[in-house]
Amino acid sequence: MFSSALLNVSCSFAFQLSDIGKAAKANISVGDLVLSIDGIATEGMNHLEAQNKIKACPGDLSLTLQK
């Protein structure tokens, strides 16, 4: 699971990650911008909305990232 927080960065989000979590295993790095979560743009989303969308995913999660 993704650890602690999502940080608002110019209408997108950057992860704070655990070194052993799913995001790290998927090669997602701190500083990557999340442009969409399961096809839904993150622009205009606040921290809680993005976090809830990620946590609500019952299976595979699709993220569009800008490295």
From TrEMBL:
Localization (cell): Cytoplasm
Residue ranges of every copy of the PDZ domain listed in the record: 21-67
Keyword field: Cytoplasm, LIM domain, Metal-binding, Zinc
Record's GO cellular component terms: cytoplasm
Keyword Cytoplasm attached: yes
Main location: cytoplasm
SUPFAM superfamilies xref list: PDZ domain-like
Family matches, as InterPro entries: PDZ, PDZ-LIM_domain, PDZ_sf
Protein name per the record: PDZ domain-containing protein
Protein source organism: Coilia grayii (Gray's grenadier anchovy)
